Amino acid sequence: MLLRSLHADFLKIRRKGIWFLVFLAPIGLVTMQGLNFGLRFDYILRRYGDDLWGGLIENIEFFVPMALFLGCTLISSLVANIEHQMSSWKQLLALPVSRSSVFLAKFTMCVIVLSISCLLLPVFTAGLGLLLGFQTPLPIRELLTMGFYPYLAAWPLLALQLWLSLTFRNQALPVSIGIAAAILSPFTLDLSVWLPLNWATLAISDNSPLAYLLGGVSLGLFMLMISLLHFNRKDVD
Questions:
Q1: What does the alpha-carbon distance between residue 97 and residue 123 come to, in Å, rounded to a whole number?
Q2: Which residues of the chain have pLDDT under 70?
Q3: Is residue 114 a contact partner of residue 71, using CB atoms and an 8 Å limit?
């Protein structure tokens, strides 16, 4: 039933702008750094001359958590808004498919589309580095770390955003929370490492990222279970 619900959800998101966002985020981040490196190449060559790949990855990494928080927010909102706009919750839940399958299918779809975006980021970054004439071999591990470590650490926000987006017909609250999280995230690093908002950044900046990865995935799954229980008991319009 989960696969059937997932297939139906992927059909629903066609021409809904979600795939545009999947490509927009990595292209935007890489294009921004392409302009940065192109306009200031002499300065960057002096600063990162011994490790140009590291300099490129470092400059992109700073913006990855903010882009991830916005991505989690907008994709969750768009996924939920498909049902809200068509007022199709009653019809959907009247089908011979469990509520759990409906909810988990939407979460799985969000995970998949965000994973594609996070995979495209290192691919486009590698392409930019080669275009700028950086030496090979490619730093594959560092590129994949930049793409996926913050993403796994950001699962709590993804679970929260999907929960709020599915719960509230008006998307103003979940979108406002997501935008606020993205804007505030660079300024909360001096607070406790136990603050989940910091985990996406710490996953790529700390020498021991495993705790933030495990914490992000574990808390994300815990919040998913809580939101699933709420969704199973919630009345629908």
A1: 38
A2: 1, 87, 235-237
A3: yes
The rounded distance, in Å, linking the Cα atoms of 150 and 199 is: 7
Residue whose token pair is 């809200």: 84
Supply 117's token pair: 């975006």
- The structure's pTM equals 0.90
Residue 228 near residue 164 (C-beta atoms within 8 A): no
Give the H/E segment covering residue 225.
helix 210-233
Residue 13 token pair: 């998101």
pLDDT tens profile 129-173: 999 888 878 899 999 999 999 999 999 999 999 999 988 888 889
Give the other-Cβ count within 10 Å of 228's Cβ. Answer: 17
DSSP-derived secondary structure for 17-79: SHHHHHHHHHHHHHHHHHHHHHHTHHHHHHHHTT-HHHHHHHHHHTTHHHHHHHHHHHHHHHH
With b meaning 16 or more CB within 10 Å and e meaning fewer, what string describes 88-105? ebeeeeeeebeeebbbbb
